[in-house]
Every structure is written in structure tokens, then in C-alpha cells.
Amino acid sequence: MARILWACWDxxxxxxxxxGIARVLEERGxxxxxxxxxxxxxxxxAAGLDATELAxxxxxxxxxxxxxxxxxxxxxxxxxxxxxLVEIVAAERPDxxxxxxxxxxxxxxxxxxxxxxxxxxxxxxxxxxxxxRANFTMQSESRQRAGFDALPDLDVLWGEREALHVxxxxxxxxxxxTTWANVVHGAPVLSTERRAVPVALPWDDDDPTPMxxxxxxxxxxxxxxxxxxxxxxALAPLPVHVVATTNEIVDHGExxxxxxxxxxxxxxxxxxxxxxxxxxGHGGHGTTMRALSHGLPIxxxxxxxxxxxxxxxxxxxxxVGRALPGDVxxxxxxxxxxxxxxxxxxxxRAAGYADALAERNGAGLAADSIERLVxxxxx
Length: 379
Prior knowledge:
- The protein is of the alpha/beta class.
- The protein has 2 domains: about 5-190 and about 360-379, Glycogen Phosphorylase B (Rossmann fold, 3-Layer(aba) Sandwich), CATH 3.40.50; about 210-355, Glycogen Phosphorylase B (Rossmann fold), CATH 3.40.50.2000.
- The chain has 14 helices and 13 strands.
- The chain has helices at about 10-25, 40-45, 70-75, 80-90, 105-110, 130-145, 155, 225-235, 270-275, 285-295, 310-320, 330-340, 345-355, 360-379, and strands spanning about 5, 30-35, 50-55, 95-100, 115-120, 165, 185, 210-215, 240-245, 260-265, 275-280, 300, 320-325.
- The strands form 2 sheets. It has a 7-stranded parallel β-sheet with strand order 3-2-1-4-5-6-7.
- It is globular.
């Protein structure tokens, strides 16, 4: 048995697949403990896993007040948080540390851990490499503006760790963008949390009306009641039923639901996708891959995540949906939805991607990458 410490960022597309991988590791006899923001603790505990709050998670937020995403980068890039992780690793002496790819403060102090480290990336790597370099440059500049030292560049933060495990298919990720020897591709981790519950719909099971799943980000920093409302308004006059999951970051009182829409906080997306005609989403890798695994086309409206605009653009490139700008209006969303209802070729092409994703256990493949490193460590 190995003891694994998971330094996590609890973004919507990050924590859920991390929990899925950790479940597989525990089933194989390993012990996993998550360390991160207070927000993630209850979610990890609800999954039956161990979690500990980082006491310094919000210590530096005031110094990042200039940044529009201060609650994100005031945690992920804080050297105070990094120093606390070094102390925790020294006290707990894990056999391996898994670091979320967005957690630059943990990546920067990884050489001080004294054990192997795996960087866990839950989206594309090669096709987004220029964007990742720009993102980490921004994080470094923000950290300096907050009065701290600069971050190493990406070639160090990701490239010099023992493994960079990418939870997407290599065939989807394009040509290799670096010569790094540590890059391992797996597959999307399409696990769920306990809050992904079945929901009772107000329509008969045999109702032939097409159903649309509307699901935007689960990250509070990316909440957009305005965009949820635009999408609801766009779909209101169409001959569809709409299920919108608001993820408790948008209060239902902030929205006016049209007659054809049903609002829920959380839902089992797999169950809904089995019935859906298409998905309206925010370009998150997890939602996009889950929809494609069901052979569903997608209307993509990116939020603020670094990978979301490029992922929505892939919908056009692959012919599996429509990519819209982040400030698209009601008419633009409606036109895209109508095109997916009218043109069945989108669904035919999406079915091809479903075939590629079938029978690939992303959580198991990620656990394999971790075990390859911990085996030599504990034996």
C-alpha cells in the first residue's frame, strides 16, 4: 500500500475527476489524502475519501485583490500555500504527491517534497500548449504584482516532474508540442460525485419532444446568471424540453424559467444525456467529453477557464457542434440550437467520437500512471 497526498485545486473540471482517480487508487489498496481549499473538504468526504483543509488557503487573498479571479490565483499561486504544503509533506511523508496541473504554488515547491510527483491535467495538453504557457506567465506576473517571487516557467513546473498525466485521448490532443519525456496520455475521467443525483422530470418518459441539457460551469468564480438566462430565453420558443443544472452557484430566484424548462441544482448528467438531443455547455473538457461519449452534439459558449474557448472552437473543427463567443446574444444561441435540431449530421459525427471514447477507463489509466511511480518507492 502507498500513501498518496493529493494537492488539489477544486475547480469544477478538476476535483470531480480527481475524486474518481482517487477512488480507483483506494480500491487498489492505496491511501489517498486530499489537501486544498476549505470548499473541497465536504465534497471529498462525501465521496468516502480523506480531506484536510489548508490553513493558509485564503491568507493572501487581499494581496491579489487587483485580480478579477483573486479567489482562484490568490490560492493556486500563493507561496504561503506552497510553504504549508512543504511542511505537510515533511510531516506526513507520503510515498508520492499528485499535484493538480493548475496549482502553481504546489508545483513550484515540488522539488522540496523529497518524493516523486505526478502532475494531473484534466484537459488537453499538446493542442493548448501556447495557452498554458501564457496562463502560467500571467500567474507569475500576478504573483509578482502581489509582492512575491516569480514562478518558474512551464518547462520546469510541468516538464521536470516525474510524470505529467493528461486525462484525454492522445488522438484528440493533436501532434506532440514538446519533447518532454514525462507526458502520458490516458482518457477523459468521466466519474461523478454523489451530488450527481437522478432527477424526476416533468415530462412523460415516452414524450417525443427533443430534450436539451443546459449545463454551465460549477466554479463559483465563473458563475453567470446572465448567460444561463440568455440560453433559457434562446431555447424558450423552440420545440424542445430543457433541463438546466445550476450547480448551486446560480440561485433559481435569479432566473426566469420559460414554460419548456426545468431547473435543478444538480443531476446525473449521464442519465440526462441518454435522453438528450444535444447539450448547451461552457466548453469544459469534462462536459464536452461526456457529451461526446454519448454521441451528442454541443453548443459551446465559453466561460473564463483557460481551455474553454479553444475547446468550443474544436466543436466547429470536428463538426460536432457550434462554437459561439462568450458574449453571444439570445438570437445567436437560438440559431445554433436550431441548426443542431435541423441538421442530423452533427449527431452522426459525434457518434464517431463516442466510438473512440468507448471502453477507455480514464480513472484507471491515471491510477496506472501513479502506481508506476509508487511501486518502486514503496518496494
